[in-house]
Amino acid sequence: MALKRKNSKMRSITRARTSQNRKIVSNKQAPIDPHREEDEEDGFSLKTSAHSNNHGVQPLGNLYLSPTSHNSRDAGLGNLHVLTDELVIEILGFLDGSHLGVLATVSKSFYIFCSHEPLWRTLALEKLNGGFLYTRSWRTTYIAAHYPGFAVSRIGLSGLAIRDFYSDFLFQSWLCASLEMKSDWLKRDNIPRRRGISVEEFVLNFEEPNKPVLLEGCLMKWVAMKKWDRDYLVATCGDIKFSVGPVEMKIEDYFRYSDQAREERPLYLFDPKFAKKVPILGLEYDVPVYFRDDLFYVLGDERPDYRWIIIGPAGSGSSFHVDPNSTSAWNAVIKGSKKWVLFPPDVIPPGVHPSPDGVEVACPVSIIEWFMNFYAATKDWKKKPIECICKAGEVIFVPHGWWHLVINLEESIAITQNYVSRRNLLNVLDFLKKPNASELVSGTKDRVNLHDKFQKAIEASFPGIIEGQLMRKVTEKKAQQPRLSFWESVTDTNAGAFKFSF
């Protein structure tokens, strides 16, 4: 229960922070029909299934243009109407499914709040622990799992439509789950693209200066490029379960979910142990030649998680983050396509609020919400983000420390790996020995001792490499320092003592 309280509170804090800068759709000058297929002014398009689970909720701005000025939200909540929508949802998050069902019969307002899909998603993931088959919605999935004899098909997917119900919070959640990516969000493509460059060129032009690059033609020999589709993965993986958010699911069950789910933050299949669970998958791809200098291998089985298979539907992805342990990464798309937005280490993306110690990052609840409310601001920035669409057969290099957001534009399958090269060795060692390493280091059970283990293993396998890297770093710093003119050197070294005679 304590964990649930903490997570629920963090979700509320996160959304509250972003709401200060939010451009709610309700700011328009005419009432918005939440079922309209397209908002022509902003060019927003809704998904074909967008009508489900809205229950007639409208943005709050529409209330001020309504002839009745009546919000059934307040009347149905009684004395609780003084609470914010976020707080109402947080309180309801303490209830189990049966209590939510009973409370939904109290009033139309409670019916809408108790039908909020994220509430049922949390219940299903926490209580069912992956032992479910997704059926139409999280609410019907939860009911079907707890009451197998109940005909969930009798539950209308769209539910009751309530008139004169206004809520920015609930409408925003539905809108983010329903919007297609705008074409304007996909236009910018300013990443360097290279094909067939040498390893030396990659190191000189991208790895050493710590700059992203999109590499083409690297996956042509991968068996995965020819074989990895739904049918092959389902047949090959069988009953083996993979990490999907906080639960584990069979790939077949995950595809069943991804075909039906229409939510603000679709679950992502993101498994770091896939090659151990299904060894053949680990043999059907090769690390591109540019990324084979990976010093973390010296730790053997004690190295932190470093490679993942990633599968997700359109709209799934990862919100802004920096890769773990100060490592660099590469991400190869096998099927589908991904939109990438990257900011350099010294530029915090708009709407993102990292804590001073770097342990927590508050950002918009969903990726679509970030695009809706913050993406346009980056057009006027001097340091514009690096952006691209990475398609099947392409690989993106993500340098250490770079903030990045990724969203799948269609159902996608990818492989990604984090690695430590010689050029990044000192950064990783410095990160692993930070005072709060026990909170910052990830992907391993022994966070505190990882630095010492790694340093000893490096020194044993590559004697002198750390000292060599330190000397190289000092030399580079000296080379980067501007040379003083004669007059500047005189002033600095002999201030007050040097006299001229004419």
From TrEMBL:
Gene3D superfamilies: 1.20.1280.50, Cupin. The keyword 4Fe-4S does not apply. It comes from the Eukaryota. It holds the Pfam family F-box-like. Its main location: nucleus. This is JmjC domain-containing protein. GO terms for molecular function: cis-regulatory region sequence-specific DNA binding; metal ion binding; oxidoreductase activity. It comes from Nepenthes gracilis.
